[in-house]
Write a structure and sequence with these properties.
elongated; about 325 residues; five-stranded parallel β-sheet; Arc Repressor Mutant, subunit A; 2 domains; three-stranded antiparallel β-sheet; Rossmann fold; disordered N terminus; alpha/beta
């Protein structure tokens, strides 16, 4: 196993030309692909570890800038332990993780590697590996500068605020429109949704949400589905329907609901999780599986949107 040149405990090589990656691979093919992707990305492999060795510990590796995992050929019985160890090291040192996995490994990987520090690639080709490593390299370099950290935190806060304002904006527009109608003496009852008695906000049933999802899927029979790809909204709809049905949704199932390639779906799940719209929780009966549900903020946003749309007599789309 190659040794890692150190710059001090937990140090970084981003001040030099070549950042350093720790490679964890399940087989020789994974090592070969990892080496090739790193070379094309301008990143040096500072250490190579097989899954069997990684399962016992990763503490001996010094200065690394990111962790590259190829789990495609990894023994299934070691997957959970190795990903947990890699995630712990990455979080402790503030490092990025790029992990190549198979579709059937999504739920296990999502238990540990979900969030802004990790990129999950499902059966990636070489170009996808290089692209993810390039993103990790840029993000990792930016982490060394306090100004960059503050800018990224501010960007995430702005995103959170913008998402939270959607329902409020729709509700305000509805109230303004109603006020204009009242003042003008015009009241079109045929086009206005008046809501339930008692002023309670209107909600949709699970059947209505599922019908909306089926309607969105129907477009793919007549047009190229990529023209209408909207994974974030598709996942919000699916999770809201599941919330109404009191049903749990696994990460792999949510990827299917997104109607995009798994790698793209996983990226969006991470984005929406970081935005505070999704919550992730482990299956209490099987720690190798993770479930995703709408957060309180996500539920509030969906209820607000649906209520505003219904008051305006608009379809949920």
């Amino acid at each position: 196993m190659a040794t890692v040149q150190t710059t001090g405990a937990g140090g970084s090589h981003y001040g030099n030309d070549e950042p350093v990656a720790l490679v964890i691979a399940g087989d020789e093919e994974g090592l070969r692909l990892s080496r090739e992707a790193l070379a094309l990305s301008g990143i040096r492999a500072g250490g190579e570890v097989r899954f069997e060795a990684a399962a016992t510990g990763l503490a001996d590796h010094g200065a690394i800038d990111l962790i590259l995992i190829d789990a495609i050929g990894a023994p299934e019985e070691l997957l959970d332990a190795v990903l947990a160890r890699a995630d712990a090291v990455a979080r402790e040192r503030g490092r990025a993780v790029v992990a190549a996995i198979r579709a059937e490994q999504i739920d296990v990987a999502a238990v540990h590697l979900m969030g802004g520090h990790a990129q999950l690639l499902c059966a990636p080709d070489l170009a996808e590996r290089v692209g993810a490593l390039s993103v990790a390299r840029v993000r990792g370099g930016a982490q060394l500068h306090e100004g960059h950290r503050e800018a990224e935190a501010a960007r995430l806060r702005r995103l959170n605020d913008e998402v939270a304002r959607i329902a409020d904006t729709l509700a305000r527009l509805t109230r303004e429109e109603q006020e204009v109608s009242r003042r003008s003496g015009v009241r079109d009852k045929g086009n206005e949704y008046r809501g339930p008695d008692g002023g309670e906000p209107a909600d949709a049933s699970a059947q209505e949400i599922r019908a909306t999802i089926r309607s969105r899927r129907l477009r793919a029979q007549y047009f190229d589905s990529e023209l209408f790809a909207d994974p974030a909204w598709d996942m919000l709809l699916d999770l809201y329907a599941a919330e109404l049905e009191k049903r749990q949704v696994s990460v792999s199932s949510l990827c299917i609901a997104a109607a995009v390639p798994p790698t793209t779906a996983l990226r969006w799940i991470g984005t929406l999780h970081d935005a505070g719209l999704f919550d992730r929780h482990a299956d209490p009966s099987d720690r190798r599986r993770a479930y995703v549900r709408l957060s309180a903020k996500g539920i509030e946003g969906m209820r607000g949107y649906i209520a505003a749309a219904k008051r305006l007599g608009l379809a949920i789309i």
